[in-house]
Specification:
The structure is a homodimer. With about 250 residues, the first copy, chain A, is of the alpha+beta class. Chain A is about 45% helix and about 20% strand. In chain A, the strands form three sheets. A four-stranded antiparallel β-sheet of chain A has the order 2-6-4-5. Chain A has a three-stranded antiparallel β-sheet with strand order 1-7-3. In chain A, strand 4 and strand 5 form a beta hairpin. The interface between A and B is large, with 56 and 56 residues. Chain A binds a DNA duplex (30 and 30 nucleotides) through helix 8.
Chain lengths: ~250, ~250
DNA sequence: CGACGATTTGAAATCAGTCAAGAGCAGTGG
DNA sequence: CCACTGCTCTTGACTGATTTCAAATCGTCG
């Protein structure tokens, strides 16, 4: 799909360009970041709760997820990540990881030494702003997830997550919001929305029965986007797609 | 309580100093930030979802909270803030607010023009790092709250929140983790943990009956901290108290 | 005193969880 | 080729934690 010659770090440039207008020198500096590419299998850990990560990991392909294990043994998935996401920025900058990061599917990561990221942020204000913005958007998604698990019923939670994954995959250039590959099992889905796998299954069957989506293996087809978004109480503002426009434009007219 | 001569922005310097070792010039620049002090009543809004904030607000006294209103009309509280917290950084930097910020009690905020914050971050790397760190710690707390509402039962959620408020108030220099003022009503508590006020009340009664806490009006006395922390599945790592030590120290021995 | 908001308590209803078992599908090895 | 294995998905019946509805109590303040 992507040209064979595409640079390993190109997906990061693509993502950060959504947030800030990077100039040629910024892009060159980003692409010049030292890194090691590792191929990871589904289920492999990228970061461990309590650890001191030495690298920032850029997800070049595949899917990953953040999660924590509660004291009762239950797992809570905190976010899902895809190509172009710098998945270990939070843990790296905080120095001691407060959550786990694990691969959802097989994929490749580019491991960039933490110091190199720190240095490029110090040297290039626009890159620093874009990286900061990236962590802030992650934060906004965390807030939305608090609302999702805290105040929405089961059906709404599932529909909301389906919408978010659809839109983010589209934004990452991985396809169409109306037809996409679901990278998660229903058990993982349940850990993301704070429900049991059994109940997630019932809700998915329900969304299908109501003609909002159809499923085939792990492929999701959204039959009626507007209806699904409504069922999922889904509004896009929290994804802050418009970061660049918002930052570059003149202040809003009073 | 605080000396009459204390500078308005001193609480921010105090908080940021937890995260990074600021030099004298950093502190001077922070204290020189232009700002306007406003006295706010309980319930007053500091930021509106969908708005474009023009200021970063430092909470000088009192308590505030972030929240969102779901499509079904339910409110989800996202975090609680106290003296020294720069409560509007997320919304300011993202340019379009994705949540509301409202006062929980009466209090004073120092409103700093957004551009001044942007400029001090650009000019002073240590201040920028401390501010970034502040937003990252907020993010870590959001993640813990996802776990709290997603994977803990009612009693555990309440106990967890009681522990967090106790410890953060102590860290902010507002008192003792074992005896503190609860700034929230039970209805607000319920919106923070994703339960109903009725059930929150039952759980609080239960914690009291079990001898973990006692309550008197809005004052909480923790009778048995270890037991409360255990009941609340509470571990402090996610608060990243040790940010400064972690950042300044040599890398951990392999 | 009276009014209002916050807290407390009880009883009934319900959404989601639990337990259990069967069905579908992919990979493995005989 | 096909049985075997393991994982995921699906369905049913039952249970239970939390919600809902309703009303009483308490405290504060004008």
């Amino acid at each position: 799909m992507s040209p064979v010659t595409e640079h390993n770090l190109q997906p990061m440039v693509r993502k950060l360009s959504l947030w800030r207008a990077l100039d040629e020198a910024d892009v060159a500096a980003l692409l010049a970041l030292p890194h090691v590419v590792r191929s990871l299998n589904s289920g492999q850990f990228v970061a461990w709760d309590g650890d001191r990560p030495q690298h920032c990991c850029l997800l070049m392909s595949g899917f990953a997820f953040r999660h924590k294990i509660a004291g009762n043994g239950a797992r809570q998935i905190l976010s899902v990540h895809m190509r172009g996401d710098v998945i270990d920025l939070h843990n790296s900058l905080l120095r001691v990881a407060d959550h786990n990061i694990q691969m959802l599917t097989g994929g490749e990561v580019a491991m960039i030494p933490f110091e190199a990221v720190r240095d490029i942020a110090a040297a290039r204000p626009t890159v620093a702003a874009a990286l900061w913005y990236e962590t802030l958007v992650d934060g906004s998604i965390f807030r939305e997830w608090i609302v999702n698990v805290g105040r929405r019923d089961a059906r709404t939670r599932i529909a909301h997550l389906l919408c978010e994954l659809a839109l983010r995959q589209e934004m990452a250039g991985l396809g169409d919001r109306l037809v996409y590959q679901m990278p998660m099992t229903q058990e993982q889905l349940s850990d993301a929305v704070g429900l049991t796998p059994v109940h997630v299954n019932r809700m998915l069957m329900g969304l299908g029965a109501d003609g909002l989506i159809s499923r085939n293996h792990r492929s999701i087809t959204v039959i009626d986007w507007a209806a699904l978004a409504k069922a999922g109480d889904f509004e896009t503002r929290y994804l802050h797609f418009d970061g660049r426009a918002a930052a570059d434009s003149a202040p809003a007219p009073a």
